[in-house]
Amino acid sequence: MTTVKWGILSTANIGLTQLIPAIKGAKNAEVVAIASRGEKAIEVAKSLQIPKAYTSYEELLDDQEIDAVYIPLPNLLHKEWVIKAAQKGKHILCEKPASLTAADTLDMVTVCKQYGVRFMEAFMYQFHPQHTRVKEILKSGEIGEVKLMKSSFSYFMDPVSRESNIRMDANMGGGSIFDVGCYCIHSSRYLLDSEPVSVMVDAIVDDTYKVETTSFVKMKMDNGVDVVFDSSFNMASRQEYEIIGTEGTIKVPAAFRPDVNGNVGKVIIEKGSVKREESYIGEQYVLQVEHFSAAVLDETLELLYPGEKAVLNMKVIEACYQSIKTDSIVQIS
Q1: pLDDT tens by residue, 259-278
Q2: Mean pLDDT throughout 283-307?
Q3: What does the longest C-alpha to C-alpha distance in the chain come to?
Q4: CB 238: neighbour CB atoms within 10 A?
Q5: Which of these three, 57, 91, 122, is where a domain ends?
Q6: Is residue 67 domain-shared with residue 103, that is, in the same domain?
Q7: Which residue, among 56, 331, 22, has the nearest Cα to 199 in the 3D structure?
Q8: Is 295 domain-assigned?
């Protein structure tokens, strides 16, 4: 096998606009099927030239031709369908957040190992080459000892659409941290090569929908670095991070969605009076698909982001929501 044959579990917009084009653009992957609960998959398959359409998720999982599935279902449904896919021998790329709790994510990872399938949570941003460059700069010591990382991921959600937006549904895993703050958590862990030991959140909770729509978060990492971030449905679009050291700073203004800027990521380094800007181009969704597909084709390859790391990310997200609930600092073991 030289090409991974993919099935898409649902007609969610991110699959149609991002992942299906990425799979089609990948050198080692192809889309062979899509499923929905009902007839929509038939229409989508025809419009996107996908060979097979199924009117239930179970039918797609029973298709022996399919090697891997992409799951962009609502957060609450991730665990159920990851486990069902694993039991059918399908490798799984699952949208973030992996689930709603660390315990559920651990169950998912355990089942995937039991059935010998690969599992990865779809934090696509990490595959863009700008972040590899940031890690190189940090390792070189150019900005000195890192003291602080700041990040923001926000957008303004149209009030008219909030009633029908799943991100505003508390029962389905709504909230800005689940949706976009999780990227800020992930990037701090990934770039600083460290895990949070405590978290404190100041949140704005919507009175009608009972989900947090804005959060201001402070974390202490196990290497002593402080991390602060904000996530929001109530602010203008921002998707950036900055790392501050004793001798300089690194800023990445299109950290999580450089694809909306023509796939161009910029790394801005300032040290004293000297400032330079480096540009990097990469199709992060395609790179993610190619990385995962390569790991499916060669079981000796290590995933950049294995399931165990997804469990750790969920532990931090859980701690954030516990901090909101208790209005206190939460320690993370």
Answers
A1: 999 999 999 999 999 999 99
A2: 97
A3: 61
A4: 17
A5: 122
A6: yes
A7: 331
A8: no
Q: What are phi and psi of 284, to 5 degrees?
A: -65, -35
How far CA 211 is from CA of 105, 182, 185, in Å, comes to 21, 15, 19
Domain that holds residue 41: 4-122
Written as six digits, the tokens of 232 are: 């929001």
Among 164, 193, 168, 165, CA closest to 178: 168
Is 76 among the domain residues? Answer: yes
For tokens 């190992």, the residue is 113
Chosen domain end from 107, 122, 137: 122
What's the whole-model pTM score? 0.96
Number of domains in the chain: 2
Please write the tens of the pLDDT for every residue from 171-199. Answer: 899 999 999 999 999 999 999 999 999 99
DSSP state of 258: G
- Please give the pLDDT value at position 235: 98
How much is the pLDDT for 333?
A: 87
Do 193 and 322 reside in the same domain of the chain?
A: yes
Which residue type sits at 244? I
3-state SS class at 237: strand
> CA 43, 44, 48: angle at the middle one, nearest 5?
125
